[in-house]
Amino acid sequence: MGKPASSGRGDPETEHRGDKKVKAHSDKESRPRTDPVLNFERWKKKHIRKQKKMKELRKQLKKPEWQVERETIGRLTMEYEKINVNEIMRFSDFPLSRKTLKGLQEAQYRMVTEIQKQTIGLALQGKDVLGAAKTGSGKTLAFLVPVLETLYRLQWTSADGLGVLIISPTRELAYQTFEVLRKVGKNHDFSAGLIIGGKDLKHESERINQINILICTPGRLLQHMDETTYFHATNLQMLVLDEADRILDMGFADTMNAIIENLPKKRQTLLFSATQTKSVKDLARLSLKDPAYVWVHEKAKYSTPATLDQNYVICELHQKISVLYSFLKSHLKKKSIVFFASCKEVQYLFRVFCRLRPGISILALHGKQQQMRRMEVYNEFVRKKSAVLFATDIAARGLDFPAVNWVLQFDCPEDANTYIHRAGRTARYKEGGESLLILLPSEVKGMVHQLSQRKVPVKEIKINPEKLIDIQKKLEAFLAQDQDLKERAQRCFVSYLRSIYLMKNKEVFDVNKLLLPEYALSLGLAVAQRVRFLQRIQKTMTNESLINQTDENKDGRKHVTSSLTNDEVEEFRAYFNEKMSILQKGEKKSGEKDKQNLANALDKEENGEEEKELEEEIRQKNVEKVKESEVQALSATNETSKDKVISVQSLDGDEEDEDGHDADFFRVKRHNVFGLDLKETTIQKKSSNSSIKKKATKVTEAKKVMKRKFKVNTKVTFTEDGELVQQWPPIQKSIVNKTEEEDEGPGINLEKAKERLQEEDKFDKEEYRKKIKAKHREKRLKEKESKREARKKQVKAQDEEEEAFLDWSDDNSEFDPSTLPDPDKPRSHEQTSDDDMEDEEGETRKMGGVKKRNRNAGKEEMISSHKSKKAKWENVEPLDTGLSLAEDEELVLHLLKSQS
Ligand SMILES: Nc1ncnc2c1ncn2[C@@H]1O[C@H](COP(=O)(O)OP(=O)(O)OP(=O)(O)O)[C@@H](O)[C@H]1O
């Protein structure tokens, strides 16, 4: 039940409770003093109050921010001089701004690479730097860090305009540099812009003046310099040339010079590349002032990354596509880049491989793509874990695709430098990678030698023939179905050949060594199309060899006339005689110019129309070249002759001059036709010691020739019966004067010669008449024969018709044999035929009566009778009078007149 109420005192429980209460109370009282939470709260309040006071105090004491920055900059600048390269391990070891360091750390860049270590300090000190280091060694940051620090140091604002200019050879590389800059420079307030073309110029022009750091390609920059009126670079502090050698290789040397001329002289210049060529040094001399050369891997054993495994395979041209396909099939989980020599190869093989579906995603990157597509492809390939990128050399420089396992060089690179850059797309910054170079047997020697000279360790590996998948048949099938693809294949074919032809190193690239039909087949084409420019080039080469021969002749080693026929010389002489002197002066220059223009034209990466244009251009040029070479050959001949003529002139004196050019010309002419050596004539003249200077007439020259009894070249042909016919010089056919001729002494009797000619003329005319008559007779006989044949056919056809009618006959009326002609009746041939005709006619008529079986019977009869009549007239043989047609006509007219 209920518990008794406690009395209070003496109740131990209560007391106890009471104690507890007290205790509890005392606890409560003591807590505010010892509770850490409360204590903290109190401390916090106090601290905040204190802080506020301090802040206010500091605010009162604080320097302006710009002043603080300035002090920091001052401190940093002081430290630039103390930079000791050997002590630098991290970016933070450099005296860099907090903002830059923060950006680097956030992008996970802490430790410096060798090129960064060596160049950042120099650049911070304000020196011009020419930096070279292996691919993937971090050159981008080596110049981006100084870029940021320079503008920071100068406290650059958007109002100051353009402060730094970074020039890249390709749009992709410019874009990539821009992305890295955005990453590491995000804590700075500078504006950065990308000017690479492919976008609206006006849109770029509107923004260009607000940009502090401009990343651009050379062509587009120059366009802005020329066209954007308010664009200027007067405040420019720093110029960076990334992959400078490539910029120059791409033919931007003039553009670069023009750009540099537009820039202020007082600036800092940094120039970076993985390879340094002479042209870069030339550019450096132009644009860098007392530069510091930093070549970090100069003494390295190899010029390519140590982590890069490099091999090459020797393969015939027509096997290359199958090799590529087989390679991709066995590397489906890898990320690879395949380099080709031309856009058209990339375009065609990309399409074909997409159709073949090798089981890996394929992308294509080349200069013919639109800018947007190029960017898309670039980003897509960056993202992909396994894919293959078919690319031209626009992807060879500087691009930093992450985790590329393989670089395959499908077409031999132009030189060792291009090889290094292509292969360098893998094995970047401490990563591993593999490179495979496909070489044609003709390319091996030259290329491997070049690579070993440039310290590139490549070793040969063999293709496993069992793993080689032949895809030629598949390509043929694709092309048979798809006309567009076929045209692409054709363009690819031409484009590859052109790329080989344009290569400078002819030891490695010899277009004449390529097996064209096999290559065409490997592309899926049924036949190797005619490559006109190659044919013309070959022609030109032949002509050039002719010119060389001529040159040799000039030196007196060979005689050019031996390679030119007399007729050719005669034919061209008249045409070129006047122009010779002018052309002789200009030929050397124009030849060089032609070559240059040809190369320039070929250099264009063309579309179909351009290709045609190009071919036409080459055709024109070659025609010109051929002409020119002919002129050269001729002029050389004439030069030789002139030399000789001069020697004659010196003997003959002034009188020779009076005779003028004709005499010279004649002499040369005779010389060429008869193979006369004028030197000999000269010597002869000399030896004759004749002091009387006579005018050399044509007759006297001819007489001399006759005296010397030179044998004229003869042209002999065979008739169908195997008879020999002399065509040149024409042999005398008339018998007249022949005996006289035999009796003749030396020299020419002009009167007799004239007579003989007249006789010859008569004889020829007679012969000609006979020939014509014979021809006419032959023609008539042929006509007769054909008419006879026609008549026979007609008779036969009528017989068949009759038989058919008989077969089809409905009524049973019998054939009356009495209607047949009497076979015993004697008849002449003509009668026979005529009677036959009449009989046939009558018979037909009878038969017609018998065979009437349809409504059109009457009509048929009429037609058949008409036919018979016609045949009758046709079969009347013309009388052979044995006269010519004209004579026949005359005879007929005469007869008609006499009849009337
Ligand atoms: N200090 C660093 N720490 C870590 N990674 C770095 C550093 N510097 C550069 N890298 C990385 O190394 C890779 C190669 O750098 P970068 O593209 O600058 O090389 P590169 O020398 O310019 O090559 P290329 O000659 O091919 O243009 C990049 O992925 C970059 O992010």
UniProtKB/TrEMBL annotation:
Pfam families referenced in this protein's UniProt entry, alphabetically: CTE_SPB4, DEAD, Helicase_C
Amino acid composition bias (Basic and acidic residues), ranges on this chain: 24-34, 751-769, 822-832
UniProt KW keywords: ATP-binding, Coiled coil, Helicase, Hydrolase, Nucleotide-binding, RNA-binding
Reactions performed catalytically: ATP + H2O = ADP + phosphate + H(+)
Residue numbers covered by motif Q motif: 89-117
Helicase C-terminal domain: residues covered: 320-469
Chain intervals for the UniProt region annotation (Disordered): 1-38, 734-875
Helicase ATP-binding domain boundaries: 120-294
SUPFAM superfamilies, sorted: P-loop containing nucleoside triphosphate hydrolases
EC number: 3.6.4.13
Family named by the database record: Belongs to the DEAD box helicase family. DDX10/DBP4 subfamily.
Complexes and interactors: Interacts with AIM2; this interaction promotes AIM2 stability. Interacts with SCNA; this interaction causes DDX10 mislocalization to the nucleoplasm and cytoplasmic inclusions.
Name by which UniProt lists this protein: ATP-dependent RNA helicase
Native source species: Monodelphis domestica
Gene: DDX10
